[in-house]
Design a protein that fits this description.
This protein is α/β, with parallel strands linked by helices. It has one domain (2-228): Alpha-Beta Complex (Spore Coat Polysaccharide Biosynthesis Protein SpsA, Chain A), CATH 3.90.550.10. Helices cover 42% and strands 17% of the residues. A seven-stranded mixed beta sheet has the order 3-2-1-4-7-5-8, with helices on both faces. It is globular and about 45 Å long. The model has no long low-confidence stretch (mean pLDDT 91).
Length: 229
């Protein structure tokens, strides 16, 4: 099951679902919508009515990326899925990379879609966005002392046992630092983490959720993770 949090992603949702459908991989998708004012949740429900593999979770408001993923992960575990993934709803994470990520999972416990490996990259980003992303990943890698190249990425596949043993109730991050925290916790517990190169393409429709507050939260959370183990 792939967990996809949404907030005002109505224009991106149908293309994403059609791309997932076209892969023919037999994956289930869970849309976790935070009561989007643009009607994303209603559209997701309409699409799910004709697709048994598409599930929708409605939340009462904008409660944060981290809690959306945690609730989505719990849902997937409760439904008995052995592999649980996460990806953005804005088409930045191309579903075409999922087959390679699934193959990599055969010899791993957690697979990360990485922008910073040979063969990976980003498209349609300005210089400042590149500096923030690459600098943030380097900052986190250096402080946490891990070799993962793309610690801040949000395109991942987890084996069931990883999520079961990471104590989701103890996750402290609710912004983009959630990605760093989940990967770091997996590494600390000895799980096999493998990166697969992906090309990340910036959204063409809608507004980015990245803000100064989100960046600051991530910067402050990294040393807390190091100190707290």
């Amino acid at each position: 099951m792939i967990v996809v949090p949404t907030y005002n992603e109505r224009e991106n949702l149908l293309p994403l679902i059609e791309q997932m459908e076209g892969l023919g991989l037999g994956l289930d998708v869970l849309v976790v919508d935070d009561n989007s004012p643009d009607g994303t949740g209603r559209l997701a429900q309409e699409l799910a009515a004709a697709r048994s593999w598409l599930h929708v979770m409605h939340r009462p408001g904008k409660l944060g990326l981290g809690t959306a993923y945690v609730e989505g992960f719990r849902y997937a575990l409760d439904k008995g899925f052995d592999v649980v993934g996460e990806m953005d709803a804005d088409l930045s994470h191309n579903p075409a990379f999922l087959p390679a990520m699934l193959r990599a999972l055969e010899d791993a416990d957690l697979v990360l879609g990485s922008r910073y490996l040979p063969g990976g990259g980003v498209r349609n980003w300005g210089m400042m966005r590149k500096i923030i992303s690459q600098g943030g990943s380097l900052y986190a890698r250096t402080i946490l002392g891990v070799g993962v190249r793309d610690l801040t990425g949000g395109y991942k596949l987890f084996r069931r046992q990883v999520l079961e043993n990471l104590s989701l109730d103890a996750v402290r991050s609710n912004g983009y630092s959630f990605q760093v925290e989940m990967t770091y916790r997996a590494i600390r517990r000895g799980y096999r983490v493998v990166e697969v190169p992906i090309v990340f393409e910036d959204r063409r429709v809608g507004k980015s959720k990245l803000s100064r507050q989100v960046v600051l939260e991530a910067m402050l959370m990294v040393p807390r993770l190091k100190l707290g183990g």
